[in-house]
Amino acid sequence: MFWHLDLKELWHYRDLVGLLTRRDIVTVYQQTVLGPLWVLLQPLLTTFVFTLVFGRAAGLAPPGLPPMLFYMSGIVPWYFFSTVITKTSRTFITGAQIMSKVYFPRLAMPLSSTLSTLFTFAVQFVAFLVMLAIYAVMDPGFHWQALPALALVPMLVLLMLLLGLGLGILITAITTKYRDLSFLVAFGVQLLMYASPVLFPMARLQQMPLLLALFRLNPMTAPIEATRAAFFGGPLPWGGLLYTTVFALVVGLVGIGVFNKVERSVADIV
Question: Exposed site from 29, 39, 61, 138, fewest CB < 10 Å?
Answer without folding.
Answer: 138
